[in-house]
Amino acid sequence: MPDTQRTALKGRGAASARTPSRFGLASREVDGDWRDHVAALDGPPVALRTTVTEERPRSILSFNRSPDVPFDRSINAYRGCEHGCIYCFARPTHAYLDLSPGLDFETQLFAKPGAARLLRETLAKPGYRPRPIALGTNTDPYQPIERDWRITRQILELCREARHPVTITTKSDRVLDDLDLIADMAREKLVAVAISVTTLDPGLSRKLEPRCAAPAKRLAALGRLVEAGVPTHCSVSPVIPAITDQFMEGILAEAGKLGVPSAGWIPLRLPHEVAPLFREWLEVHYPERAGKVMSIVRSIRGGRDNDPNFGTRMKPEGVWADLFRSRFCIAAKRAGIGKHRFELDCSRFCPPSPEGQLDLFG
Fold it and tell me: Are the beta carbons of 210 and 12 closer than 8 angstroms?
């Protein structure tokens, strides 16, 4: 279907199944047969079903040495994310499977039911040294399928057993399903939770992140976590110029009323296939301001759609970046919010039994 005919798909962020070109996925050439006219005649599908495939990796804990993130190890219980955030920087990971970072990323999901078992084996190794494990660094640990698979909960149960610290980043109030575990871990300085709030407008949220919890529910979840004594962070992210930046002050004001002690902001990132998908989204939803949005994005990224370099990729530059930074600092100060780095306790880590059985003499 030509780009000019792209339309929004109900409940999905991407408007197409753009295929990756970096890893060799074959594309069918237009040759004039009936398949080339199906979309034009029938229109887009009314609904796209979500499928979940079990993935059996040999390891579950990923390590990194990036200077741009405050953690060196992470777990992703799922590959792909049903939330469908059009701006998600993790979309290109589906390209490694020769699947589309567009609609496939939102509809063809992979779950790792053996995650807790693999983590147990890793934590039980004699040479393992604990540092906080980050959950939700690529795909959301509390996306809708967690309700049935409960992989994130199994990981938290093991971390509580081993007294291993974790951090959680999510856009879902479903994190409250595990508040019993999280509150227990918080009392022992074993957990901190960050919830991302992009906008206060539920209509805009449905376009940007169609299957995420509504903004009001995310704010309410922040409040519940604070009440339970959980170290809580509000992430105003991503900040999208001329689309969501207008909500920065309002989000911080609401978070401040809830007693959230920490907040930060992250500018829009458009790596690899995310840039054309986001441009397509703009043409569908905000064609009149698409040029302005991308002009500002390029201005804070050194003239490009994205800055992929370590050390600078999370640090926008230029006049617009300085303006966003100043606005955030002023609004956070007014709301009584700082930017804390919660110190979690690694000193009481107790390696679990490799197979999960009780120690005979423990």
Answer: yes
Specify the amino acid at residue 127: G
pLDDT in tens, 10-40: 778 777 666 555 555 555 454 555 545 555 5
pLDDT in tens, 54-87: 999 999 999 988 888 889 999 999 999 999 999 9
CATH 3.40.50.1000, applies to 50-335: no
Q: Where are the alpha helices (DSSP H) in 51-201?
A: 103-107, 115-123, 146-149, 151-162, 179-187
One-letter amino acid of 179: L
Domain boundaries, the chain: 50-335
The rounded distance, in Å, linking the Cα atoms of 32 and 40 is 13
Are 195 and 170 a contacting pair, CB within 8 Å?
yes
Annotate 14-54 with DSSP letters as a single string. Answer: -SS-PPPSTT----PPP-SSGGGGHHHHH-S-S----EEEE
